[in-house]
Amino acid sequence: MHPILARRRVLALYLGIWVLVGGLLGAMLVTQGALDWIEALVVALPLATIYAFICLSAWYVSRGMPLVATGAARILATALTAAILSGIAWLVVARFWTGTLAGRGWVRTTGEPTGFAALLFGLGVLLYLLSLAVSYVLAAFEDQRETERRALQVEVSAREAELRSLRAQIDPHFLFNSLQSISALTAADPAAARRMCLLLAEFLRESLALGSEHRIPLSRELKLVERFLAVERVRFGSRLNVQISASDSGDCLVPPLLLQPVVENAVTHGIAHALEGGTVRVEASRSGERLTLVVENPCDADRPRGRGAGVGLANVRARLDALHGGEARMHVREAEGVWRVELTMPVE
User: Fold this and answer.
1) Do β-strands 253-254 and 278-287 pair in parallel, antiparallel, or remain unpaired?
2) Quick check: is 169 in a domain?
3) pLDDT value of residue 110
4) Could you tell me the residue range of the domain that residue 233 belongs to?
5) What span, in angstroms and rounded, lies between the C-alpha atoms of 23 and 97?
6) How confident is the model over 39-48, as pLDDT tens digits?
7) Residue 157 lies in a domain
């Protein structure tokens, strides 16, 4: 369907413009002295309205011969042919209309004003070419919007695929580390290994319950962190302490399992290498429209390097980039025996 005919307001605006064209045509007839204003408008306004609908065909010509895919010579030849045929059709309609009006006595003369046919034909050709030019401009805008819409869809699909891939990497990475811990405890402390299996099952059940959720409340994310640390506490005992605070930011929405790789990194590469253990501190705060998540843990400056640390943090950074682009930040710092990871993102 023609875009002008599809929307009433646009159609009303379009016909309003052609009423002005009819007024100008009527003024030309009056200046020739053959008709007065009333008679000229009775002749000109219906003719302009009829030609308005004839010129709608220019849209289909522009869509049938796109500028990019059609040669200039062909476009020019087709445009001139369509304009001439439309001008002739308008002239035929005009003669029929003026003859009908004269036969009913609604105008004073049955003859055409001097040069009326040439004027009408020339004006018709120009108006049709102008309509065709406008149609090409509108078609270009429409194609640009369609291209932008498709590009946005591709970008969104790519981001979703990237997020699914990154999220899929989290559970196997954590599960691998947990199974290694359970394997180590099996010989040393079977009861602890059994307890760790049960806690791990609870954590996995909770994480799987998230399903395809893209966002969860921060309070729920922190409960997942608590479940994860409960699993690790079986292995480390009193060496692992936990401190979690969320102030008034518990209702903010965050991606599921966003903090789990950060906390896992704090335990695996922080607490595990500290002889006396330490405290994993998780703090969430909101400042205006920004949410800040901080995870701190003690770290040994002489701990082994290059054993895979940072894979989870790389996933977190990639997820933030995919979700928020440049509006999210992740800062990692080690100072005075403390490893600190700070995530900032827009409040949702």
Assistant:
1) unpaired
2) no
3) 44
4) 189-346
5) 17
6) 889 888 999 9
7) no
